């Protein structure tokens, strides 16, 4: 296997992180909504944690895209 094929395989594996980030975002917002429906009074107190979780999960997807692009266009 040559270096170009290995770079393409690595870029494909790095792109799996973007799918994981999408699943993570759905889980984060779904759990927040379920908790807010059970206890509406506590929903405002958890909103900051929701936004922080969103930012960290979205950063994972962006970093995996960056790694894939670095492998493709080296």
Question: How is this structure best described in words?
Answer:
By secondary structure, the protein is mostly helical. The protein has one domain (3-72): F1F0 ATP synthase subunit C (F1FO ATP Synthase). Helices cover 88% and strands 0% of the residues. The longest helix is centred in the last third of the chain and has 30 residues, at 43-72. The model has no long low-confidence stretch (mean pLDDT 90).
Q: Examine the secondary-structure arrangement and name the CATH architecture.
A: Up-down Bundle
Strand/helix succession: HHH
**What's the main sheet like?**
none
Give the low-confidence spans.
none
N-C termini distance: 18 Å
From the structure provided, what is the oligomeric state, counting identical versus distinct chains? single chain
Kindly provide the name of the CATH class: Mainly Alpha
Structural domains: how many: 1
What fraction strand? Answer: under 5%
CATH superfamily: F1F0 ATP synthase subunit C
Roughly how much helix do the residues carry, as a percent range? over 70%
Q: Roughly what is the average pLDDT, rounded to an integer?
A: 90
Total number of β-strand segments? 0
- CATH topology heading: F1FO ATP Synthase
Structural class: mainly alpha
Radius of gyration: 17 Å
Specify the overall morphology.
Answer: elongated
> Helical segment tally?
3
Organism: Prosthecodimorpha hirschii
Domain V-ATPase proteolipid subunit C-like: 9-71
GO molecular function: hydrolase activity; lipid binding; proton-transporting ATP synthase activity, rotational mechanism
Function: Key component of the F(0) channel; it plays a direct role in translocation across the membrane. A homomeric c-ring of between 10-14 subunits forms the central stalk rotor element with the F(1) delta and epsilon subunits.
């Amino acid at each position: 296997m040559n270096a170009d094929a290995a770079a393409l395989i690595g870029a494909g594996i790095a792109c799996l992180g973007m799918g994981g980030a999408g699943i993570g975002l759905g889980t984060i917002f779904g759990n927040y909504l379920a908790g807010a429906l059970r206890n509406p009074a506590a929903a405002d107190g958890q909103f900051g944690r929701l936004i922080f979780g969103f930012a960290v999960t979205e950063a994972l997807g962006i970093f995996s895209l960056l790694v894939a692009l670095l492998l493709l266009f080296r």
